[in-house]
Q: What sequence folds into this?
């Protein structure tokens, strides 16, 4: 059993542990937020989410019931109104779920999703894309994302959790950082030769093997299966959402041959085909599951909690 607030704090710290940024960069970000907070006045100060002063992941939040003790978490990729209602139904039948973790953010954690995109600057520069280019690209894409999510119905899911009195948190970038660092190290070590080999290498990971069952396995979305993978960049695994089409041009100029992502938008695929860049999409649900599993393995070592996997999430334990 663990208090949701304490569990959330643990998840944030583990997310920082696997973050592509140096800790000093994260400390600077939090320091800036503290300074800005001091200057706030009136409603903006009163309504400020003080968790932001300690937690750099605006998409990894307690949504409802931080003071509640949780023993059994239902965990899914998308835990929305229908899943919360389903859980209430299951509880009527005696499942005793007392906490919910959704990977994809909801409520204010979705409304501020664009705020986490800055970490992609460090992912890109790690792969040799000049920091000036990375900053320009990430800045313009995150302002686009911000405008896109602004009109959403953000109070809907939080209110549902409140009405059902069900503890709820989101665990997005903290988990995706784990998937990113795992896949980066794994592919760097395996050095697959062709795109075909790259796909086979990814399929060695249990979450991706599971994904075959649902026809959502890794796929080549640009390039030929006999193409050499060359320099592989795990560029679409963490940092909120994808970078759109512009990333392809930067890859051409920086010598990255193959982009590995959880999923890729249509425009990005078209651009990649035009520029002879390879795109391998590892698969969305298995990639999200991988990140969730790696962080929950650590959580289950520390806390006595049970996990009920659902909504596109496949539980695989690694430390038994
Ligand atoms: Fe994700
Ligand atoms: Fe996702």
A:
């Amino acid at each position: 059993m663990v208090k949701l607030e304490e569990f959330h704090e643990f998840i944030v710290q583990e997310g920082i542990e696997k973050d592509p940024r140096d800790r000093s960069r994260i400390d600077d970000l939090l320091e800036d937020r503290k300074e800005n907070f001091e200057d706030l006045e009136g409603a903006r100060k009163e309504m400020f989410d003080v968790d932001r002063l300690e937690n750099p992941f605006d998409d990894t939040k307690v949504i409802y019931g931080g003071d509640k003790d949780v023993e059994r978490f239902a965990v899914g990729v998308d835990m929305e109104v229908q899943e919360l209602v389903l859980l209430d139904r299951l509880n009527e039948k005696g499942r005793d779920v007392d906490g919910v973790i959704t990977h994809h953010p909801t409520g204010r954690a979705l409304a501020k999703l664009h705020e986490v995109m800055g970490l992609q600057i460090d992912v890109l520069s790690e792969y040799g894309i000049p920091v000036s280019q990375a900053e320009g690209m990430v800045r313009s894409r995150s302002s686009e994302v911000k405008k896109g999510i602004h009109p959403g119905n953000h109070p809907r899911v939080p209110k549902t959790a409140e009405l059902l009195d069900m503890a709820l948190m989101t665990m997005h970038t903290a988990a995706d950082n784990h998937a990113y660092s795992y896949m980066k190290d794994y592919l760097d070590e395996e050095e697959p030769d062709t795109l075909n080999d790259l796909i086979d290498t990814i399929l060695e990971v249990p979450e991706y093997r599971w994904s075959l069952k649902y026809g959502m396995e890794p796929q080549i979305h640009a390039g030929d299966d006999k193409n050499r993978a060359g320099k592989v960049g795990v560029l679409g695994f963490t940092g909120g959402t994808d970078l759109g089409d512009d990333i392809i041009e930067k890859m051409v100029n920086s010598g990255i041959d193959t982009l590995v992502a959880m999923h890729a938008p249509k425009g990005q695929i078209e651009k990649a085909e035009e520029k002879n860049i390879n795109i391998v999409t590892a698969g969305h649900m298995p990639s999200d599951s991988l990140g969730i599993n790696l962080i929950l393995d650590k959580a289950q070592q520390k806390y006595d909690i049970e996990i009920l996997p659902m909504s596109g999430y496949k539980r695989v334990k690694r430390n038994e």
